[in-house]
Amino acid sequence: MPPIPGSGLAKGLAVTLRTMTKKTVTAQYPDTQPELPPRSRGVIALFEENCTVCMLCARECPDWCIYIDSHKETVPPAAPGGRERSRNVLDRFAIDFSLCMYCGICIEVCPFDALFWSPEFEYAETDILDLTHERDKLRDWMWTVPEPPALDPRAEEPKELAAARKTADKLRAQQEAEAARQAQDDTAREGDE
Q: How far is 133 from 115, CA to CA, in rounded Å?
């Protein structure tokens, strides 16, 4: 049986009328911010204080989109009679997000926890050359990095925390012993007078 002329148009209008009465599921993006899942990947943030300019992130990056410049400074000896040391000082740290494929290798290989995933995703630019973000912008994104998930209460305490706690307890015991010794000396002096 041949189709009735205009039946396709009627079917299309029926679909339109059916969907017009339903609530929309489209989020109006600029006005309504999306709820991102926890630990979502947006951009890479830099915690500059932890960066030792070891260059591992730049060497391991498969896209070669990390640019690092540094110079060496001489640090005076920490104790009298010690020797001077040299350390790297970060001059430039930039990531070209037009080349970055967001693999996270740079974050994984950083031995000093200087790079983190930030959930920030609104960094579009009108010019592709502006997608190379310098360390100031990367540092600003550090404030959007969420706290790491809490440790499982049944998990073993990290060795770093255990060592730090042991050192702190030892220092506290020394300070208490010194304070007790000082109080004893003060009491002995008062008795002599």
A: 14
